[in-house]
Amino acid sequence: MVCIACGESVLREDAREYDKEGNRWDRRDKEFEYLCVDCDDELCHQPRDGLESLVLSIESDGLTQEEFLDRYTDAVADSAKRPDDG
Q: How does pLDDT run across 28-55, given as a tens digit for each residue?
């Protein structure tokens, strides 16, 4: 397998499956990508529920990367202050 992050070749048993759809347990009709252990360890393994809608809500044409990241940081901080609805 080839790590999608660093390009290192690793044995299958030494690779970690990466599912860009975020649900590795639903395996039907999927092709997984792979990460080496070091790159996998560097990833944040937090749930991504709501991430796409959050990004779309703050995204805008012409934003610089810094402006986008400022908006993202503010939105995440605001959501952390609110009680969980679930």
A: 777 888 999 999 888 776 667 788 888 8
